[in-house]
Design goal:
The protein has 149 residues and is an all-alpha fold. It contains 8 helices and no strands. It has helices at residues 2-8, 18-30, 36-65, 69-72, 75-87, 89-98, 106-112, 117-147.
Length: 149
C-alpha cells in the first residue's frame, strides 16, 4: 500500500517509479507471501490515496505554484494542459493514471486547475481500479511466462 501511495503522490512519485511497485508485487505473489486479491487491494488503496493527496495538495498550494517563475515561463504549456483537462476530463485522468511519467503530476494539476472534485473522485475511482487490475494482469503474465522456462 505504501509503495502504491509513494509512486502516485506528487512529491515522491518521481523517486518511486511504478517498476519498483510492480517488481515488489511480482515478488510477493511468486513467493506466496501475498494473494492477488490483497496485492490488488493494496495497489488500489495506495494509488487512490496518493491521487487524492496530490489533488488536495494542488488545490491548496497550486495557485502559489502557478506564480513561480519556472511555471510562468511555461504558461503556454500550462494553458494547454488545462485545456486538455477541461476538454477530455475522464480520458485525461485515465491517461494520466496509466502513464508512469505523468502519474504523480496528473492529480496535482487537476487540483491546481480547481476542476470539479466530485467528477475527479468518480473518474479517479475508475482509473485506479483499471490501473490496479492492469498491475495484477502483469503479475499473472509474469508468472505464466516464468512457468514456461
Amino acid at each position: 500500500m505504501l509503495l502504491g501511495f509513494l509512486e502516485s503522490f506528487v512529491i515522491t512519485g518521481f523517486f518511486f517509479p511504478s517498476l519498483l511497485l510492480y517488481l515488489m508485487a511480482v515478488f510477493l505473489f511468486l513467493e506466496g507471501i501475498s494473494s492477488l486479491f490483497f496485492i490488488t487491494l493494496c495497489g488500489y488503496i495506495g494509488s487512490f490515496s496518493g491521487d487524492q493527496s496530490s489533488y488536495l495538495m494542488g488545490r491548496m498550494y497550486g495557485t502559489k505554484a502557478l506564480k513561480w517563475q519556472f511555471i510562468k515561463k511555461r504558461q503556454k504549456q500550462v494553458d494547454k494542459v488545462k485545456n486538455t483537462f477541461d476538454k477530455y476530463e475522464f480520458t485525461a485522468i485515465l491517461i494520466g493514471r496509466m502513464t508512469p511519467s505523468l502519474r504523480p503530476f496528473s492529480p496535482f494539476f487537476v487540483g491546481v486547475f480547481k476542476l470539479n472534485y466530485q467528477r475527479f473522485l468518480f473518474f479517479d475511482l475508475i482509473a485506479c481500479a483499471v490501473w490496479a487490475s492492469g498491475l495484477i494482469l502483469l503479475v499473472v503474465l509474469w508468472d505464466y511466462i516464468s512457468s514456461l522456462f
